[in-house]
Design brief:
Layout lengths: L6 H27 L7 H4 L2 H22 L6 H20 L5 H12 L7 H10 L9 H7 L7 H12 L6 E7 L2 E4 L8 H11 L9 E6 L10 H12 L17 H4 L21 H5 L7 H4 L10 H4 L3 E2 L2 E2 L2 H4 L13 H4 L14 E2 L2 E2 L5 E2 L3 H4 L20 E8 L15 H10 L13 E5 L5 E5 L5 H5 L2 E7 L9 H8 L2 E2 L10 E7 L8 H6 L3 E5 L2 E2 L13 E2 L7 H9 L12 H5 L9 H18 L2 H18 L12
Helix pairs in contact: 1-3, 6-25
The structure holds 2-acetamido-2-deoxy-beta-D-glucopyranose (NAG) (4 copies).
GO molecular function: transferase activity
Family: Belongs to the glycosyltransferase 90 family.
Protein name: Glycosyl transferase CAP10 domain-containing protein
Amino acid sequence: MPPTGTTPLIALLGLFLLGTALHIHAEAVSGNARGQPSQRLSRRMPLSMSSILVLLLLFLGWSYDLQTQELVAHPIDWLIIKAKKQSDDWANQASASQNVAECVQEYQRRYQRHPPPGFDAWYRYATARNSVVIDDYDTMMEDLLPFWGISPAEIRLRTQQVISDPWNEVSEIIIRNGHAGLGPDFLPTHRWMLDGAINLVKDFSSYLPDMVVTFNLNDEPRVAVPYKDLQELRGLAIGTPKYLRQTARHSWSANRAATWHIPDDLGSTRPFEDHSRTNAFSAGAVACPPSSFAQRATSWDSSTLCTSCAAPHSHGVFLSNWTLSASPCHQPDLRNLHGFYLSPAAFKPSHQLLPIFSQSKVDGYADILYPSPWNYIDKIFYNATDEHPDPPFAEKASSLFWRGATSEGVSRQGTWKGMTRQRLVHLANNLTTVPTSRSPTLPVLLPNAQGKYTYQTLPHTNPITALNLSLDISIVDGIARAWDNDGAAQDAEFGFAPPTDFQDHWRHRYLMDVDGAGFSGRFLPFLQSKSLPFRAGIFRSWWDGRLTAWRHFVPVDVRLHGLFSTLAYFTGTPGPASGGEGDGAAVGKGVVLTEGNVEAGEEIAEAGREWAGKVLRKEDMEIYMFRLLLEWGRLTDDKRDEIGFVV
Ligand SMILES: *[C@@H]1O[C@H](CO)[C@@H](O)[C@H](O)[C@H]1NC(C)=O
Ligand SMILES: *[C@@H]1O[C@H](CO)[C@@H](O)[C@H](O)[C@H]1NC(C)=O
Ligand SMILES: *[C@@H]1O[C@H](CO)[C@@H](O)[C@H](O)[C@H]1NC(C)=O
Ligand SMILES: *[C@@H]1O[C@H](CO)[C@@H](O)[C@H](O)[C@H]1NC(C)=O
């Protein structure tokens, strides 16, 4: 850090290769014209000479880059343009088919199977509710794919295993004769979740076959299948072309209810192990290939920023690939950077492929994502009123706002220092950038007097003041989830804020969103507002495939090293401190006053709001759940290879 741009290097190399090619071509043409054999060309430009030239140019490019390190255009401009195209392309392919026949054809093309029985009813349900997403259910199918590798009877048996013991913290809803109901045993504390799930399916339950659906009651995901096993299951699932027969029977097997009965001898071994409050990283990293960085590096020294961990999904300090940024496989340092990995409050995972429906998961887990009842039954929701208005973007305060609890994980032996929420609060309020040989000061990408962008380091004391970014980020009330001395240690470190009304958020232009123990339930209301959400997190939900980072929200690496550079792009920079007093002068050197790209921020805020109003409505949650349960009905049907919907 700071990152050095490779673009000039690549451009130089590209020009050189192009020039060489043109030269050789010209030689060949003139050589042929003179009737000389073209073989002689290789002697005119020996390999050693061209490689020396390449090395020379590489060196020139490198030193040029090192000396100036200036960027003419801001990387975020480019990321925004790219995201716009990406999200347009996604939307076009997600809603291409115009009628049920085309939809079936598209389904068969994508997933090499017939759609499940009841697909026509689903299509009518979705189109009657103006669903924009008709064709692209790739993430759902990805979740379900490994289950094609085990038999329907085995899936049902594992279903009974996970609900047979309340210790498992899994509860079911039972679908019988077109109605959904609670199972016999459920934890009263989680009744809202099951009631929410029942509510979610009630409008279409008459189309569902008899079955049992098992829900994870914890925020943390549960199913971490080792890489090799998962590859094997996927191989079994896609390896057979038999599924696309000419015809299929459009009905469920008779007598399905009887196939779900609880066998007498379930065995006494528990399918889950309790790993609460211990480092959970390696439990999930088993899903990474053995050659991956995460599998090879069993530890990471947390006093060093792992730039090579961030590089694959970054452009400079900016996050450029949101999907990839969730993968633990190239990021062994994540083990110390998130509460879920450091010390999850409730973590009972299994390495066996178990049928568990979860509200969110981190990359590598094989839980099946479903729309969270938390959002569906409005546990938290967007409700701007006269008392709590949501003014136009330009009229909001130019500040980044966050309030929350320290609920990401349970801190023991200082693990709070790595948790994203605590690091965020520390960075915003208590940052000191004392340079050491291993960790220089925090570089921030800022414009200079020539209108170019350079990474500049902040003064050692009071760096935030120098940047003049308005940050309003606090833990509410006090410390939660801390054991031993960790509560007192955090009390000494952090300041606290009184609780605020959730609807007060809309006063701020920029809203910070980070994970809690699982996904953040607030993100959807943030998206629906006229404010711009900044999102840092590794948890992903059913809708993540529908959103595009930099188009609908602003992504931030969980390391938070790019947060100030990202914020400065939108808010502008203070310019040289004219008085030359105190620390302000240090950052002012070479920095010019910039207005900030307020319009770019407003455009993303609006695009996110509009898109959420199209694809993340409650109707969309129902449509997703309807299709998911038809797929689940088929997966658990003994005749699953013979049934389906064909036009
Ligand atoms: C992000 O990374 C994934 C996984 O490597 C890749 O498939 C995808 O194309 C990348 N997306 C972009 C926009 O580069
Ligand atoms: C939204 O807020 C208003 C004013 O506080 C309140 O009267 C109303 O009930 C709220 N809406 C819902 C759906 O709760
Ligand atoms: C950290 O910042 C907060 C908010 O400004 C303040 O209340 C707290 O005392 C600071 N902590 C330390 C150790 O300086
Ligand atoms: C810092 O920000 C405040 C409010 O956002 C503004 O009034 C002030 O002029 C800024 N200072 C500089 C040096 O730009």
